[in-house]
Amino acid sequence: MSPIYPGSVDAAGQRATLGVLGGGQLGRMFVHAAQRLGYFTAVLDPDAQSPAGLVSHHHIRTGYDDPAGLAQLAQLCQAITTEFENVPAQALQTLAQTRPVAPGAAVVGIAQNRIEEKAHFAACAAVSGVSCGPYAVIETPAQLQAAQTDRTDLLPGILKTARLGYDGKGQIRVKTAAELATAWTELGGVACVLEKMLPLTAECSVLVARGWDGQVVSFAPQRNVHVDGILAVTHAYEGNLPPALADRAREAAVSIAQHLSYVGVLCVEFFVVDDGSEHGGLVVNEMAPRPHNSGHYTLDACDASQFDLQVHAMAGLPLPQPRQHSPAIMLNLLGEVWFDAGGQRRAPDWHAVLSLAGTHLHLYGKEHARAGRKMGHLTVTGPDVASVKTVARRAAGLLGLPGLEAI
Ligand code: ADP
Ligand code: MG
Questions:
Q1: Distance (Å) from CA 371 to ligand 1 centroid
Q2: pTM (two decimals)
Q3: In whole angstroms, what is the distance from residue 294 CA to residue 225 CA?
Q4: Which ligand 1 atom lies nearest to the CA of residue 135?
Q5: Fewest C-beta in 10 Å: which of 22, 183, 279, 292?
């Protein structure tokens, strides 16, 4: 594909415009990155107040499967991406008939389905060197029964819907065969995977960007702390993980992206499990076909962010290897921050937080705070890991964030 240069104007007088399906915070930060380079942007999202729609040149307010909305997006844009993991694959296919779309419908389809995703991880395990944990597919009552009798090795485990889960939603932890049956009913009897509950010692993720020409760059793995299934803290600095383990995760993520002929930014999540070895074993968990919450620190701690790389990859620009210039800790700001212990609404003490050196506040423009809703994030950078940790602890204390002991 020939590059779409920022600031260019085509023969019809149209200015170089990049489009994104989905108007959430990932779309908003993508729009910011594209605009900074000089592109015009278009967002398709039904919500008039969507975080990305609020800051984009164009905002098409239709559903993701609306033919007129998709046609308008294709007409406005020279290339299109997605920020919404559950975007209908059909929408990407429709757009791809007339425009470069990255990532493509086929790979997004794989990442949207845990069964296909695990099959892909298994298919590249020989090259990536990393497998997924033990699991069973449960799509039918017969498979449920078989799992109850033949796969007791997977208990205690987690039953996860194959599709549409995020932030720990669509998952039920089960200890016994009876609980498994109840959980499957509770999840509506839809296609699921039963995963063995693994003894996690850590979690990490790797961001990879791959261009149309196959060029690949990646960030060093970040270590992630989840609270109640939602990302709470990301540690991004040298020494956050044993170096040999970090190297393996990075190589595995790159080979997973290559094996998919992926174009754009891909995030691969890994578990570190206690397998009796010195640093623990590495297990691949899942992948997100887009920039990821765990990569938000790259905005403030690296010379190119995950969103910059998404712009470069989809527009066919060169992909220089990003460099992290500061150690960083990212704190997720969920809706809880806007409520006190008694459930009363409060204004977070931004004055105190912003007086701390090296804090970078990103709010997503969402009006209504709700428990578990991602409202923003705070990245702390500094000259060394110790000072980053000190400031991050202070900020987390001021905001009443969970996971303080993990900083
Ligand atoms: P989501 O799509 O919600 O991110 P994940 O599969 O990543 O779903 O699960 C969310 C979190 O739940 C993980 O980050 C991890 O903390 C925990 N978890 C998920 N699967 C397992 C497992 N098999 N063993 C132990 N912990 C798990
Ligand atoms: Mg996850």
A1: 19
A2: 0.96
A3: 10
A4: 23
A5: 279
CB 81 within 8 A of CB 20: yes
pLDDT in tens, 309-325: 999 999 999 999 999 99
Residues with CB under 6 A from ligand 1: 133, 158, 165-168, 195, 197-198, 200, 203, 226, 229, 269, 285-286
β-strands 58-60, 216-218 pairing = unpaired
CATH number at residue 391: 3.30.470.20
Do 80 and 74 touch, CB atoms closer than 8 A?
Answer: yes
Count of domains for the chain:
3
- State the pLDDT at residue 127: 84
The domain in which residue 139 lies consists of: 134-196
Query: Of the residues 196, 218, 250, which one is the last residue of a structural domain?
Result: 196
Residue to mutate (ligand 1; options 154, 155, 175, 271; most atoms within 8 A of CB): 271
Query: Which of 121, 163, 226, 272 for a ligand 1 pocket mutation test, highest count of atoms within 8 Å of Cβ?
Result: 226
- Whole-number Å distance between alpha carbons of 90 and 77: 18
Residue nearest to atom 15 of ligand 1 (CA): 229
